[in-house]
Model the fold of this input.
Amino acid sequence: MSRWSTLPPDEQVISEPADEAAPAPDAGQEERADLAAYRRARRRARTRRLGTGALGLAALVVLWQLLAMLISDPVFLPSVSQTVASFAHYFTHPYPSQGKPLWYDALTSLRRVVIGFAAGAAIGVALGAGMSSSRVVRHAIDPVIEVLRPLPPLAFIPLFIIWLGIGEMPKEVLILIGVAPVMAVTTVAALDEVPEDLRLCARTLGATPRYTMLRVQIRSALPGILTGMRISMAGAWTSIVAAELIAATSGLGYLIMQAGDYLNTALVFSGIISIAILGLALDACLRGLLLLADPSRRR
Amino acid sequence: MAARAELNGAGAAGTQAPAAAPGAEVVIDSVGKTFRRGGRRTVALAGASLRVRAGELVCLLGPSGCGKSTLLRIIAGALPADEGTVTVGGRPVAGPSPDRGMLFQTPMLFPWLTTRNNILFGPRAQRAARLHERDDPELDEEAAALLDRVGLTGFGDAFPHELSGGMRHRAAFARALATRPSLLLMDEPFGALDAITREKMHEFLLDIWDQHRTTIIFVTHDIEEAILLGDRVAVMGGKPPGIGEIIDIPLGRPRSALDTDTEVFLNARRRIRGLLQPAQLRS
Done:
């Protein structure tokens, strides 16, 4: 997963005029003679790394196809082409016949994840900021989070159904419950990590306490907070699909369950691949933001 | 405008530039600081007095725990003194001020800003606080002049992680100079650098100081560094920690690493070693 996540946003590199090729300098050299050449060398290394990563993915697909050909039982393991055909068909055709097409289920799951994640992240960041700025708040909230954090959100599903019914709300709250504690913890850590001297430095440069808070302390914690979002986003997909497997009439989890019940294995794979694509896409968005926030990760 | 002209002029003329914004005189008068933690009191500094002349470079030298960093932070306004007063340019210190620039052991550059925007952090923060109304073209011009001054032309768009160790320190220097401080406080700024880069940074520091003539208070635990840089060296230590003897360093200027072999240098070193000896044994 972590290798996958380096794929998409790496296209977003530092903008720079692509001038004529120059000899690549040693990237580890102490005195850097030329910034543009240094960046070119780093970009070349990145391209190589991406190529290796793409190779790994391709190997997985080849292995899958070989196994499918060997087994030649589409119910046990459909081939790559059968899965692609299934995906293409059900993307616009409903399954089961009275149900909804794949794109609709995908959008439904995506909406639940995004709403639940956004709410959970907002609450978590606010809690974390409060905990970081006030010792009393920290000591009061810390044990609550420590109790909640190791609990699997799925354990709450029956409770949320009892309390909130079977509509959209319990699913979004379920994601929120998983996201908020992680975000609170990572936000506290990110804010705590800002060196005291960095703030002092801003003050000696003439920044007011308020300016220092916004432009230095929070700004400095931003990459850590975004990293926390990437971690909790992965958890959000786990929760939503599990919830849809148990209590839903739409969504990718529901689709996978239905397809499984009728031994439509190719469609199960299609659903899984849809989740992978959506997960990658959302992670790519967050990674893009992270690259914007932290230039040192653009390598 | 006048100050900027001076900045550019000094860059062109090299040495012996007239000090348009001369360094401030610093008067440290019986300053003491006690830290209290869980009922335990630790005297970090007691009765420290020192008068630093305008444009002087004074080194505070001593082992860890001698109160030198505490004193520097009190002068910076980051820590309130429990006793005594510090005045810079005739004004008592109350909180951090861009008039007193600070350089740390690590460059403390803002990692999300390019070198140029790091340099302009101070001027922009001051503009946000309505302390001046210089516009962007004017600031860009000043940033270009400072980049040139510290030898980072062509690296204005580089991020800190793309610079080498020495370059980062020079960028931090340029950033501190951008607010035109009358006093620079340096807290073991080159302690983490390798010996060769460090030597280069010493020459760089002395060169910049020669041009700007800001007052500099330089904290170090390195005897040779203190002698090579300082007009005077204040030896710190003792119990409770404070300023002990203040040694004049009668070496001429400009100085370089070659001066470390001279009789004057060796005498000063011998004397300071002797002063530090009992303190080290006791602690």
